[in-house]
Amino acid sequence: MPLTFDDLLNRARSLAGGPYRALLGIAGSPGAGKSTLAEHLVRALNGDGPPWVAYVPMDGFHLADAELDRLGRRDRKGAPDTFDPAGYAALLRRLREDTDEVVYAPGFERVLEQPVAGSIPVPPDARLVVTEGNYLLLERGGWERVRPCLDEVWFCEIDEAERVRRLVARHEEFGKEHAAAVAWVRRSDQRNAELVAATRSRAGLVVPATALPGR
Fold it and tell me: What phi and psi values does residue 174 have, to the nearest 5 degrees?
């Protein structure tokens, strides 16, 4: 039987059945649908009742452009070493500790393409945290600290041509001309995608695009 969105909902609910806060990671290459899946999951699980699922993307741990300029890495923004994996892992550990206080996570402003500190509150009654990002399953460069903090990691998989089309459209939506968007995808995003694809075998579940609602 093909995997369905209801299957994913049931699997996510089962993670949160214990006495401690659960953390679900969603990995995948740029443009594979990670944030779409995470947002659908959180919305469906929270339903019309009191929210008990929080969404904390990895993108809040992008290094700021000023720091990327200092490092000479702005032209590779989005590569593994243009994030703060140690900070991300520290936040996940704090969420795992499940204290009785609100935990504030950084977000990411797509228009500015900059991280925004303290913009995502995770209240004590959030019993499941869904986080997503490219490098959750990477085992080097500090990213190896991330996987042990997560109960389970899923991997989003999509047709390669559609993934590239989505990426180009996203870059255009946030200000790049078409030619510049295509060039960025070919030069930078594709290198990142190949690195992420090599981590697929470490995922607990591979999620095809057909498992998303409306597909």
Answer: -100, 25
